[in-house]
Amino acid sequence: MKKIFGRIYILIIMLFLYLPILTLIVLSFNEAKSMSVWTGFSLRWYQELFHSKIMMGAIANTFSIAILAALIATIVGTMAVLGMAAMKQRTENVLMAFNNIPMLNADIVTGIALMLFFLMIHWPRGYMTILFSHATFCIPYVILSVKPRMNKNTDRLFEAALDLGASEKYAFRKIVLPELKPGIMSGFLLSFTMSVDDFIITYFTRGAGINTISTLIYSEVKIGIRPSLFALSTIIFVVALVVLITVNLRQSRADRAV
Amino acid sequence: MIAKKRFATPFIFWIIAGTVIPLISIAYYGFTSREGGFTFSNIMAMFQHDHLQALGLSLLLAFISTVICLALAFPMAMVLRESKYGKQGFLIFVIILPMWMNFLLRTMAWQVLLERQGVINSLFAAIGLPRQEMMNTPGAIVLGMVYDFLPFMILPIYNTVSKIDNHLIEASYDLGASKFKTYTKVIIPLAVPGIVSGITMVFIPALTTFVISNMLGGGKINLIGNIIEQEFTVNSNWYLGSGLSLVMMVFIIASMLLLQKFDKTGGQNLI
Asked: Is A155 an interface residue toward B (CB < 8 Å)?
């Protein structure tokens, strides 16, 4: 009995989560512009999407910003973890408290604060300000994923390598990096997804004339929903599905290997 | 020592330029008048009728959405906990997947469903029911909030309830506790850290959103997020916008402190 209730409940939640997405997917193949009448199968909205220069530009911006922001955040964050290990506990605690601010603060406040900062120092808003802002909110996530991997043992192994005649560079590459690697990888991936997904901070820190996928969707929805956005939804959904399945499969294979 | 303090220099620079100075600039603009003098009027502007109404509505809608999310998520987390291992992984996957869809597109989906010429109304019309006005209502906004933020409630709660030792629950039953008592005395207290971080992850974005209210409220229903956003993008009154943001931050900090009181682990489950 209890099992049946559980199953029905899961089903209801699944329907709630997926029916809206499914609707978008179905409508993306509808020939008419209508949201309610099915007039036949068509790929015209996908064509419209791929022929839109603005959309292609926004996609390029989104991914180039995400990769660069994640790279910057990963380097700055990992170096910060190494640096903090040499500091007194109290200094470290203060830095970690500041580190938590962008994560706990509401995105709208972070966005506005950065926008005011750019206005104050007369940094014209555009690609670079978005990149700076994304790195700002990504660094905390990198630090939180790398920090747990850095412990006393890492340091001892490094010292041992030096005693055995390794150069600092070599010991760092062969001892420290492999220890930190899982944290660095997950910090990078987390940053990348946060950056791709962000709308609010980008909205306030971008200038006129530059769009990411999110800001473009927002301005298009305001004018009126076009079915090419349904096509975009379908593509994003399929990409997310493929990526998550791949990651999960690799994970479970790795689990079995252990 | 591999660690050298100077490695943290870029990070400290980033904290100062990306977090500290920007926050100080909000405070600066918030306490400055358009003419450049010191003033409290941007802060006190929150007491204007329109602004108070928007803040009240934001608090109310965020509260309702959080309660609904909690009510939906807790049973879901318990069902997940009790499902078999392989199935569990699949279900978690199914819950995470929508989070990877851009949330603007997810919100847009509800616009498509709820609009007067939209999918649900067409279904109504097809079976002879009158078309309903569902868009541009507070209900539509709550629906959008619940839909967008539900996974953020389910995952942290699931993370804590999945770690509860089965023996504790069995012991509770063995000692004669009823099902209700086991929940209130054993399971829920152990799930508090997850519940607290779930509430934080739903309530604060819901309180400060301007996107969901803009898309599903048709620009007719103003939340405090909309008021602030308009001050910056439409009216270009950064002073007033900053003042109102400062007041909103007070509410964010207050709700966090209140929630921290319930969570004795000190917010380690926040992510």
From this structure: yes
| pLDDT at B271 exceeding the cut of 60 | no
Instruction: Pick the residue of B28, B105, B169, B239 with the most A CBs within 10 A to test the interface with A by mutation.
Output: B105
Size of interface A-B (CB pairs under 8 A): 235
What is the CATH code for B20-262? 1.10.3720.10
> What residue segments make up the domains of chain B, in order of their start?
20-262
A241 inside domain: yes
For chain A, the residue count is: 258
Min Cα–Cα distance to chain B from A223, Å = 11
Whether A160 and chain B come into contact, CB under 8 Å, resolves to no
Rg (CA), chain A: 23
- Distance to chain B for A234, nearest Cα, Å: 9
| Structure-token match 């997904």, residue found | A197
> Is there a domain that residue A162 lies in?
yes
In DSSP terms, which residues pair with B38 in a beta bridge? B32
ipTM: 0.88
Question: What pTM did the predictor assign?
Answer: 0.90
- Decide if A84 and B8 are in contact by the 8 Å CB cutoff: yes
**Subunit contact A83:B249, Cβ cutoff 8 A:** no
For residue A216, the domain's CATH number is 1.10.3720.10
Enumerate the β-bridge partners of residue B246.
none
Q: Chain B: give the shortest CA distance to residue A236, in Å.
A: 6
How crowded is the C-beta side of A246, counted as CA atoms within 13 Å? Answer: 6
Residues in chain A within 8 Å Cβ distance of B122: 35-37
What is the pLDDT of chain A when averaged over all its residues? 91
Which tens digits make up the pLDDT trace of A102-160? Answer: 888 899 999 999 999 999 999 999 999 999 999 999 999 999 999 988 877 888 888 88
- Write out the residue range of the structural domain in which residue A110 sits: 52-248
> Has residue A2 got a pLDDT over 80?
no
How many structural domains compose chain A?
A: 1
Per-residue pLDDT tens digits for A158-195: 888 889 988 888 888 888 898 899 999 999 999 999 99
Q: Do A80 and B91 touch (CB under 8 A)?
A: no
Q: Do the domain assignments include residue A67?
A: yes
Contacts of A185 by beta carbon, 8 Å cutoff, 6+ apart: none
pLDDT at A85: 86
Does A214 fall in a domain? yes
Minimal CA separation from B159 to chain A, in Å: 17
Identity of the residue numbered B126 = A
pLDDT of residue B207: 95
B63: its two tokens: 């509260």
User: Are the C-beta atoms of B159 and B270 separated by less than 8 Å?
Assistant: no
